[in-house]
Amino acid sequence: MPNFSYEDSFSNGSNAIVVGVDEVGYGSIAGPVVAAAVYIPDRNVECIPNIKDSKLLTPKKRDALYKELLSHTVCGTGLASIDEIAEHNILVASHMAMRRALENLNLQRIDLVLVDGSRELKSQWPSKSIINGDELSISIAAASIVAKVTRDNMMRELHDQYPEYHWNKNCGYGTAAHILALKQHGATPLHRKTFAPVKKCIISTKNQDK
């Protein structure tokens, strides 16, 4: 279970403002990548013991915690678009989304950013990357929940534009049903055309048209 050990070890007992950051949508084949940044000012809030990696929560529990986090923590979100993912790459785009999430925090200062993953986040704030951080740091786990619910809601709205791809269920990830729909209907402007499953579909469609 995630806890405040990392936050405490890096703050050295001071009143340092330590923020957790995580992204969602890295491996998706459609839609943006979304990041969230969370600072927990009050550790006595009732929902804190229930926070864990968003992937380990049911949708119902995740949505409930999301609402609690918005009420009792300082949150910021950011995204990188499909075009930005194509222009750079998914890693660079993910870090762009993380920096935007941090910039959207309503904080006068940030002393340290805890980042989920192994890659250094280059930004104006000092940071520490933690492998499996969403399982270890409660601030990162909280960020994973906010990012996940934010992006899921976004993909459900986009589903209304392209219902054949079932984004309300797969959130843009390459499930069997999504890949089948991709083969049947082709790629939309919201598909990541540099990603292998989408690229393969586009090439296959072009070959069929010859």
TrEMBL record:
Listed GO biological process terms? DNA replication, removal of RNA primer; mismatch repair
Under Gene Ontology molecular function, one entry of this record is: manganese ion binding
Q: Which CDD domains match?
A: RNase_HII_bacteria_HII_like
Question: Which residues of this UniProt protein bind a divalent metal cation?
Answer: 22-23, 116
Question: Where in the cell?
Answer: Cytoplasm
Give the cofactor binding note: Manganese or magnesium. Binds 1 divalent metal ion per monomer in the absence of substrate. May bind a second metal ion after substrate binding.
By its UniProt entry, which PROSITE patterns does this protein fall under? RNASE_H_2
Q: What name does UniProt use for this protein?
A: Ribonuclease HII
